[in-house]
Amino acid sequence: MSDDPKPSFWRSLAELEGRPEFQELIEREFSAPVDEDALPGSPDRRRFMQLMGASFALGGLTVGCRWEKEEILPLTRRPEGMVPGESRAFASAMDLNGAGTGLLVTSVDGRPIKIEGNPKHPDSRGAAGIFHQASLLEMYDPDRATHLVRRASGDQRSDWTEFERWLAEHSEFAADGGAGLAVLAEPSSSSVRGSLETALRQRYPRMRWVNWSADYRDHELLGAKLAFGQSLRTLHRLDRAAVVLTLDADPFSPEWPAFLANIRQAADGRAPDDTGEMSRFYAVESAFSLAGGLADHRLPLASSRISAFAAALDALLSERLGAAAASHGPAQPTPRRDWLKDERVAKFLAQLADDLLAARGKSVVLVGRRQPPEVHALAHRLNALLDAPGKTLSYVAEPAVGADYRGSAVELAELTTAMNAGAVGALFVLGGNPLLDAPSDLGLSAAMSKVEHRVRLGLYDDETAAQCSWLLPRAHYLESWGDVRGWDGTIALQQPLILPLYQGRSDSELLALLLGEKPATGRELLRKYVSGLSDERAMRRAVHDGVLAGTAFALLTPTLASLPKLNLRDEGLAPDELELVLVTDSNLLDGRYANLSWLMELPDPMTKVTWANVACIAPKTAAALHIGEGERIELEVNGRTVTVPAIYSPGQAEGSLKLALGWGRERAGHVGGLAKSDVPPVGVNAYPLRTSKSLTVQNGLRVRPTGEKAVIASTQDLHAIDQRGREGRDSRLGMIVREATLGQFKTQPDFAEKAVHHPPLLQMWQSPVSYDGHKWGLSIDLGKCIGCNACMVACQAENNIPVVGKDNVVRGREMHWIRVDRYYKGSPEAPEVAFQPVSCQHCENAPCEQVCPVGATMHSSEGLNEMTYNRCIGTRYCSNNCPYKVRRFNFFNYHLDLKQPENQVKKMVFNPEVTVRSRGVMEKCTFCVQRIQKVKIKAKNARRALVDGEIVTACQQTCPAGAIVFGDLNDPKALVARNQKRPRSYVLLEELNDRPRVKYLARIRNPKPELA
Amino acid sequence: MTLLTAVNPYQGAPKGDNPYARITDNVARIAEAERPPVGWYIAFAISTSLLAMFFANIGYLVWNGIGVWGNNIPVAWAFGIVNFVFWVGIGHAGTLISAILYLLRQGWRTSINRFAEAMTIFAVMCAGVFPGIHIGRPWLPYWMLPIPNQMQMWPQFRSPLEWDIFAVGTYATVSLLFWYMGMMPDLATFRDRSRTPIRKFAYGLFAMGWRGSSRQWHRYEKAYLLLAALATPLVLSVHSVVSFDFATSQLPGWHTTIFPPYFVAGAIFGGFAMVTTLAVPSRQFFGLKRIISLDHIELMNKVILATGMMVGYAYGMEFFVAWYSGNEYEQFTFVNRAFGNYAWAYWTMIFCNVVTPQVFWMKRMRRNLWVTFAVGVLVNIGMWFERFVIIVTSLTRDFLPSSWGNFRPTIVDYMTLAGSFGLFFTLFLLFCRYLPMVAMAEVKLSLPNSHEH
Hints:
Number of helices of chain A: 33
Largest sheet of chain B: none
Radius of gyration of chain A: 29 Å
Structural class of chain B: mainly alpha
Structural class of chain A: alpha/beta
Strand content of chain A: 15-25%
Mean pLDDT of chain A: 87
Strand content of chain B: under 5%
Radius of gyration of chain B: 23 Å
Strand order of the largest sheet of chain A: 5-4-16-15-14-6-7
Low-confidence stretches of chain B: 1-16
Oligomer: heterodimer
Low-confidence stretches of chain A: 1-7, 31-40, 60-68
Number of strands of chain A: 43
Order of helices and strands of chain B: HHHHHHHHHHHHHHHHH
Number of helices of chain B: 17
Shape of chain B: globular
Distance between the termini of chain B: 15 Å
Helix content of chain B: over 70%
């Protein structure tokens, strides 16, 4: 009403005359109870209602039917309408550092509540990683940038109209071919953004465009250039590989763009039940990775030594192959290093070479991005020697990387120089967070201050936005149209699930604005720049499927250049020298997810530490440096220091310390740290240690113990375990996680059942329930599980599991219904690791049920151990009596924060089909009873029987390895029934006679007999 | 009757002194004094402060949630249940002295049974607080009671917690009745000696018209005998049932058949220790040295020595059975108890419960009040730690090492524990001040001249 100068009906003369007092009165009367400016990023009640209204509108509840207009096509068969409260899945896609994954997003009444993988997408096949799933929380994050801010003198609230006007007024930087214009963007696989970039480059030929991410793949691309003369992308086919060597690489971690496909393909080769054959993995790495966990042989080796190891392997392979190797040029000379002559290393190397050659054509070498380009180049040569191209790997062109590519770090440095020289008049920063993660010696911040106009399109008012003159809210991918290209090039369409919550726009929309394209909505841009979508029917089809078939990159057969003698980091690692390996974090990546509580509380796969980053150090190195467990240590590299807690990491290479980046942020938000609201940073910021000299492995590390002990919140081994405890743990490990080698498995397939001797398990009485109908059961394949934690996030999202915060994790009160236990086996120097997901075992003879005085946990006729929250009074006796300790208790009301007006938006993430528990009640895994019921109702309405595989639990659905299988044990053909009957199937703590419905498939390792 | 004469406090009393009058006077003047000794005020001030802290902490707990304690997963039970079992255990001596010793015609019990019973009642009251406040939703403990309701709810009788409700409830009721009924003749004495109308009315009300007629005495004796017979099995059953909380579960360290007798012996042990802890200062401050004589103290110390040995035997037997079972988890639990993270708690318990009572092999020590008091206090500490060791240490490390975790108490835990002593001592001090601390009628009954007619 304030825009209307002359109202037709008026309440007072003041209104009629439009006096300011009246405006003020109106504003006061209808304003939120709290000052909006005092709570940046928080929707007030009215805003919340608007959002909800918008959501309902999107859901098609209103006659206006925004949903029809925007044409978001559902995957189900009833596009003509939707039942309120009914959840529906829509295809979308997410880009993560230049590679996209197709997703299915479940939406209820217009609000997305769960993210799963798109079964049609070649990488995902239904699986989703932790970042994909947690990105949902990112969209509902109340700390997101909620409106445009113009930072001239003080912050001014602004809007897009004003920005567009400003843009039109300031065309001077576009002059002279855009010489004063620079774009610093987060890498993206979007072909729309790519096309707009090209168009922009044509319009402004002198414009500077730099893609930068802390996690970008410089070394890999430069290595390919060394080997092939062009930057190529390598697609691995681990399912075709019999022998896999990973050199400081973790193809299963989300930093590897095709990690979902890698996990699936690797896991498929790890179940020898039918074929009796399985793949063999070798890992040579400094810090334990997921691939190292899966590996049959793992050699801990400092990252600085990997290059010499690779060269030695090259020499060995070339020598064995003789003439066959000659076509690929001369081998690298064997490096002279004393440690290579060490018996363990030498034996490993020799047997590895044997194995790789024996499986020639079925073996492959992978190198991690922390290794220098030379090692990547060498790996291409190794793969060529092993006859891998076309078999276990293939090459495609790397899109958007020209022949003159020199690496993003170099380009960023050049841009900094240009900015320092005053050559840049306007800088557009699209996504990313360069002021956090740029090399610390670059002086990017100072350089940026010399740029007159700094425009920031970002999700948060973060470190970079703080120094920009314009903050434009970026639309979350769930709010905007777009496309992403998978690792193999397949295009997946990104359709919005909700209207932008905070007036955000996508990168492409901003670029279109710069180009002056009209109309420039995301959807129109998509149709314009992605071929094959001009036809409306095709567009609808594509949006429905989410994937454009046949859009994968063409496979190339490049010729390998004869490698020159590579500069293999001759400094290596002197015997007393220490190295620091800076890695992107397993949970926060480069820090962009630092405000997502699900990920903050997700334990690191290896250390099981939550709510902090810690320096991983080999126990032997720690002892030599007199560092205690959990002690804060000061790390000094290149004259820069940070102080961080250290923890003993079995399997960490001696002399090598690992520290994750992305922590210790001061402008992340109320979860990850927000200086202006006195929320202390979580963890320690390691970026200051990262200089242009080396972005990954830092040599010449100096460590100084401070003697101060840090409180570390880990979900396992929370407290130091004494000698007795270690003995007790180690002696029972073989009963808990049962394993055998392939040879042992072949001679005694039922080794797992025989691992524990116990008296016959008799029942005192006939079971009162016969389980005639369904009999739900779960099977977990320990051979396939790689410990990636995807199931934990899936469960958290599906079942509204609260986050308890660091203090409560320290007290041992984390709430995850499914946890992934990690056990080390063998010597602390070179242990084997075993993962074991544990959720409620749904015992038929459940100890928890018998001790509840109020009958709050009871057995269903289908064998589910059910928790009735309303009835629970919280005696916690059930937890005491649970031998698996899978029950979780609400020690506090963990949803109290939702009462704050600014946190209302967080409620939207809840799954309406699952009760949000209040304080004082017990909770635990339900086998996703809501999913069971939903499918059962559907089948009943259709008057048909349930089909095996139709009901999937959330953990099973997202597991990239396919390790978790749920189903009806009464159906002998069901996969779960077949799995549970396999000889290597066993029941955890069977001797207690609780008769769980969960059975584990024992892990089979495939060590080389000569190395075992 | 040798025993009786041996402990007769008035044996060889000076001629002309009427022991009946002296007993009455001795006991009644405590309640009739203008004001109690200064020590009483100091003790009462401390106790009520602790009591206030107790209520404040409970309020804080109810407002915020059980998380203000240090409990976690796996240690879902900690101080709350430790305190509960501790106080229930303390509550054993009273009824044991009143009922079992009565049935066994142990006349010496008469001088201590009244305040031992009072102690029982107050200890059970302290114990009763904890199950109510330790649950996650402390406003709903009544759901454990079999109250017909419209919520379609009924307790689940397979749960040992449900058995607890009945065992402790019955015990509290019978103990209260027993105590009150036994007190009636003495209340009547107080009434008759009252000088103010308020006192006369109050004591008169609770004396329920006692006139001391032979018919009343006859009925009284019969009822007392019946109640004693009823209470006797309860002494054994309450702590047996409390021990079922642990014995019927399958946690290593809990799942053991020795628990019922072991818990009962421990409860009597702890209960007697509490009686001596209270008796030694009380007889001093309130001038009851002749009624509660050194002979009584010595007899109680003998009981402490005997039950302490039983408890020690149970500790040893647990280890033996764990080893003999061949069960890896069971064996680990006991090794862990003695040498793991909580070894200090275990050895505190062993020192207090097994080592210290050994001084009572010496008569000199049994009759030394300082030693008696010190051992009483130590045994109480030891018995608290016994429950801590059983409950907390077992929970910290059960089957899967992945879920092992330690327990660290919070300040609220400590304050609640201290506060429960405030409740106990406040009630006890009020009892000392206003009620007959010694069963006058019964003591008189055990005088030699009562048996000379």
